[in-house]
Design a protein that fits this description.
Layout: H1 3-23, H2 34-42, H3 54-63, E1 67-71, E2 76-80, E3 87-90, E4 95-97, H4 101-105, E5 118-121, E6 128-131, E7 148-157, E8 181-187, E9 192-193, E10 206-208, E11 210-215, E12 235-237, E13 241-246, H5 250-256, E14 265-271
Parallel strand pairs: 3-5, 4-6, 5-7, 6-7, 7-8, 7-9, 8-11, 10-12, 11-13, 13-14
Antiparallel strand pairs: 1-2
Helix pairs in contact: 1-2, 1-3
Length: 272
């Protein structure tokens, strides 16, 4: 697809999204561009118009441009159409819902991009919710160049939410110098419910220079003792694994490291 065709698709997708906002009683900004879209969508009154909700409007835009989102009774997943995209922020992504185990791991779903560096899902002003089993299973397992992923969600509810989510990284035969370093931020998170939320998050095998996991807002211990069971099982990080958390949660995370799998795990009290 040519650059001109991609720009045309982008334009039409954006126009469709703003048409949907207008039809549902939303406030149209002075300039109808991508920067204003999230604000326009959030201005739609509750129950405004017909034919869908805020999430549907944003899906209409996304389906015509950067990525495809499948939504049915059994799946709610996303992957990028344009494999040349290096960075994406989906501020209007309101929620993620689980899909069956076999679909989550066969890599038919999830984000597919071998040069994608940065992903941000969610909006600090409107954190999304993540619910259902295997919600992010295998989601980033086809991304071999990720450096930073930020998931802005107020709560995680369900079992095995991140099973195999980051089972990517470099290939086993790649030189160690080419292994990516990855940082994962779970922002605005104030509650984790369900069992084995992060089970085999990096499994069965993944290769990274270093792994950093940040929990800047989590202040309540998860309900399940096995929340972090085998979180790093199968992960190889040449420079080690670091977990950054609130000072008040440091002792809790230290008590969990023995069950996390992996090697050279360091817990750092970093956030007030």
């Amino acid at each position: 697809m040519s650059i001109a065709s991609q720009l045309q698709d982008y334009k039409y997708g954006l126009m469709d999204a703003y048409d949907a906002v207008s039809n549902r009683g939303g406030t149209m900004p002075a300039r109808c561009n991508m920067d204003s879209l999230a604000t326009a969508i959030n201005s739609i009154p509750s129950g405004g118009g017909s034919g869908g909700n805020i999430d549907t409007v944003y899906r209409s835009y996304l389906n015509n441009t950067l990525c495809r989102i499948d939504n049915s009774s059994s799946t709610d997943s996303m992957y990028f159409k344009d494999t040349s995209v290096r960075e994406v922020a989906l501020a209007g992504y309101a929620g993620v819902f689980g899909y069956p185990y076999n679909e989550g791991l066969d890599q038919q779903y999830g984000i597919r991009n071998t040069i994608l560096n940065t992903v941000t899902l969610g909006d600090p002003e409107h954190p999304m919710t993540v619910s259902g089993n295997y919600a992010f299973a295998g989601a980033f397992s086809c991304c071999s160049a990720l450096n930073e992923v930020t998931i802005i969600a107020s709560q995680f509810t369900g079992n095995n939410l991140f099973y195999g989510a980051f089972a990517g990284g470099a290939l086993q035969n790649d030189p160690q110098s080419s292994w990516p370093a990855i940082k994962i931020y779970f922002k605005k998170l104030n509650g984790i419910w369900g069992q084995k939320t992060f089970l085999c998050m990096f499994g069965p095998r993944s290769f990274y220079q270093s792994i950093e996991i940040h929990f800047p807002d989590l202040a309540i211990q998860p309900s399940d003792y096995n929340t972090f069971l085998n979180m790093f099982q199968g992960a190889q990080a040449a420079q080690g694994i670091k977990i950054y958390c609130k000072y008040s949660m440091q002792s809790y995370f230290n008590s969990m490291t023995s069950s996390m799998g992996g090697y050279n795990i360091q817990v750092i009290g970093y956030y007030n």
